[in-house]
């Protein structure tokens, strides 16, 4: 059986198709298809407050492509979720309805708390009893989640992200709000370890020297950030081989991870290969007995 997740973010839209595996009583998911396309919806929304007709047309075409891929893979059920850009767009819900009418793909516009919940449901599997600060940086928002003994203690969504920073449209006082939240919620008497999710931290992690398979240090993330920042956009693409839509946002995104880690006093970060798309897949499986979407 195959399930699919569509994650429509502020920078890119992703399709992941996974096979459900059963080993005794343990269920796991094996990725068999992954496609990412840089729609950059946040550029419209953070500058103009709404999605342009051009972006709507591109998103519609992409959903048609994703639908065909799901049909080819004989996907049994799926869910499409849109986050910061579409939920902040004044015409986001209208665009989603027109896309559904045109493609049959229903887009669920989820709030920051639901986005964090879906990501947390998979990230918690990588944690132990220690104190962890989960940092998820997207194009339009950053979600922080505090864990201890694998239990979520607190969480908060902030209107600051890689595309929003690139466009100079971060919410006034957002940096200070994050710093205050970290100071108010983290027990400084205990070790705190950061957990990073999102495309930019995954790329930074791939370039960094690692202390283990899933872990590196704040110092190493700072070093990689400074190294990338030393190249202009063209050289980041041609010499570092970064995608164009990654090359311009990776340094602003790195600044968020680094700042939060410094404020928290975290000198290590774990980077599991997990994200919103994985949480959506897990939710689709859990709801499989309910009414299904017909492709």
UniProtKB/TrEMBL annotation:
<feature type="domain" description="Ppx/GppA phosphatase N-terminal">
    <location>
        <begin position="29"/>
        <end position="281"/>
    </location>
</feature>
<dbReference type="InterPro" id="IPR050273">
    <property type="entry name" value="GppA/Ppx_hydrolase"/>
</dbReference>
<dbReference type="GO" id="GO:0016462">
    <property type="term" value="F:pyrophosphatase activity"/>
</dbReference>
<protein>
    <submittedName>
        <fullName>Phosphatase</fullName>
    </submittedName>
</protein>
<dbReference type="InterPro" id="IPR043129">
    <property type="entry name" value="ATPase_NBD"/>
</dbReference>
<dbReference type="InterPro" id="IPR003695">
    <property type="entry name" value="Ppx_GppA_N"/>
</dbReference>
<dbReference type="Pfam" id="PF02541">
    <property type="entry name" value="Ppx-GppA"/>
</dbReference>
